[in-house]
Amino acid sequence: NGYIQLDDVLSPEQVNQLRDAVEEATGQPQRFHQRHEHYDQYANLWTIHEGVRRHVLSPKVAEFARRLSRSSAIRIWSDQLLTKMPGGRPSFWHQDVPLWAMVESGALSCWMALVDVTVDMGCMQFIPGSHRWGRFAWKTLPWDTLETLDGLRLLVPDDRHDRLQPVAVPLRAGSCTFHDGLMMHYAG
């Protein structure tokens, strides 16, 4: 399907350690901080904070990624911390790889929940199998158009409209999803 949910990857103690590390790291001067209208985005906190680095470079998480990608080795391209405020706008339906300006195929993302995330809170949603549909020209449409499935229908070929059936994936803190870099996904 292009994604998988893994429960309880981090223990409650590890979740608390990572939350504390993230709080410390985001309190430092940032090269990679962007404040958007409805969320904050930090990138590469692992490069400036040892506590974040310990979790981002976790051998356990790396082994999951290696096995899922069927690779002999993996490397990290980036980490991102997204903090979304209640009542904010949803993300838009997208694929990661075209937004990352990567040429290579085979990239995957791990999304680790640091708090329990329910459907009402805007958990991740995936369109099963969409990672096999190729890359889409996201920048041809306004981002807000892609906040809905109706908008996504403007981008996806007509013969795939019946497959636009999202699956919501609520997570407990310390659980994660991995998804293919071409997986269509969204968060409310």
Question: What share of residues are in beta strands?
Answer: 15-25%
* Low-confidence spans: none
Relative helix content: 10-25%
Largest sheet: 3 strands, antiparallel
Distance N to C terminus: 21 Å
| Coarse shape | globular
Secondary structure category: alpha+beta
Number of strands: 9
Provide a concise account of the structure shown:
With 188 residues, the chain is of the alpha+beta class. It has helices spanning 12-26, 50-56, 59-69, 96-100, 149-153; strands at residues 3-6, 33-35, 39-43, 80-84, 108-112, 124-126, 167-169, 176-180, 185-187. The protein has a three-stranded antiparallel beta sheet with strand order 1-8-5, covered by helices on one side. It has a three-stranded antiparallel beta sheet with strand order 2-3-4, with no helix packed on it.
What does this molecule look like?
There is one protein chain. A 3-stranded antiparallel sheet has the order 1-8-5, covered by helices on one side. A 3-stranded antiparallel sheet has the order 2-3-4, with no helix packed on it. α1 packs across α2 (50-56). The chain has 188 residues and is an alpha+beta fold. It is globular, with a radius of gyration of 16 Å. It contains 5 helices and 9 strands, in the order βαββααβαββαβββ. β2 and β3 (39-43) form a beta hairpin.
